[in-house]
Design goal:
- The complex is a heterodimer of chains A (114) and B (109).
- In chain A, a hairpin with a 5-residue loop joins strand 7 and strand 8.
- Chain A is mainly beta and 114 residues long.
- Chain A has no helices and eleven strands.
- The relative contact order of chain A is 0.33.
- In chain A, the strands form two sheets. In chain A, strands 2, 4, 5, 6, 9, 10 and 11 form a seven-stranded mixed β-sheet that branches. In chain A, strands 1-3-8-7 form a four-stranded antiparallel β-sheet, with no helix packed on it.
- Chain B is mainly beta and 109 residues long.
- In chain B, strand 4 and strand 5 form a beta hairpin.
- Classes of the chains: A mainly beta (114), B mainly beta (109).
- The interface between A and B is medium-sized, with 26 and 22 residues.
């Protein structure tokens, strides 16, 4: 158990809909990272938050947004969903601000868009 | 942009064999991560390296900064080691990780 909790574990929805994925980091970790893993693209970095502030953006679509709340949990919002958004979405937490520290991954949220 | 290459893409071995998975990258890094992903999806962080060598149980990870290369070794491999092993690099001053495409390892009893 990494200590990182992601909900929901599975989500099936239709094109055009909006979903919210939630991540609770390990106790005390200030950094939360979001990653997308699709069959054709592999793992890709989406966005990083540190102590409530956005620190870096990767290949995140404009239809996607995220935030980190004062209690340090984070949410990834995906809107106007398309078939190609079907993927595993992982969050990871770290006690450090950068990626040169150990990362602790959640079990992922599997999104299926029909 | 850092290019990360892993080899082999797929590896099948008999139980007990010594396994080596390689990772090369193109630009100097601040750290390299080895990750394990079992069927069913969860990702586990195995090692984070910035220099030298680390060992955890039957797993050993090494990195050669000058040659921009890292290896993950598994001694006395076991069917439970069957998984996808992913290398990821963290660039200097960059908070993004760049991932390799993974090595799918299958250990046959």
């Amino acid at each position: 158990d990494s200590g990182v909790t992601q909900t929901p574990k599975h989500l099936i929805t239709a094109t055009g809909q909006r979903v919210t994925l939630r991540c609770s980091p390990r106790s005390g970790d200030l950094s939360v990272y979001w990653y997308q893993q699709s069959l054709d693209q592999g793992l890709q970095f989406l966005i990083h938050y540190y102590n409530g502030e956005e620190r870096a953006k990767g290949n995140i679509l404009e239809r996607f947004s995220a935030q980190q709340f004062p209690d340090l949990h984070s949410e990834l919002n995906l809107s106007s969903l398309e078939l190609g958004d079907s993927a595993l979405y992982f969050c990871a937490s770290s006690p450090l601000r950068g990626t040169a520290g150990e990362l602790f991954f959640g079990e992922g949220s599997r999104l299926t868009v029909l | 942009k850092n290019e990360v290459e892993q080899s082999p893409q797929n590896l099948t071995a008999q139980e007990g064999e010594f396994i080596t998975i390689n990772c090369s990258y193109s630009v100097g890094i601040s750290a390299l991560h080895w990750l394990q992903q079992h069927p069913g999806g969860g990702i586990v962080s195995l090692f984070m390296l910035s220099s030298g060598k680390k060992k955890h149980g039957r797993l050993i990870a090494t990195i050669n900064i000058q040659e921009k290369h890292s290896s993950l070794h598994i001694t006395a491999s076991h069917p439970r080691d069957s998984a996808v092993y992913i290398c990821a690099v963290a660039n200097f001053g960059n908070e993004k990780l760049t991932f390799g495409t993974g090595t799918r390892l299958t250990i046959i009893p």
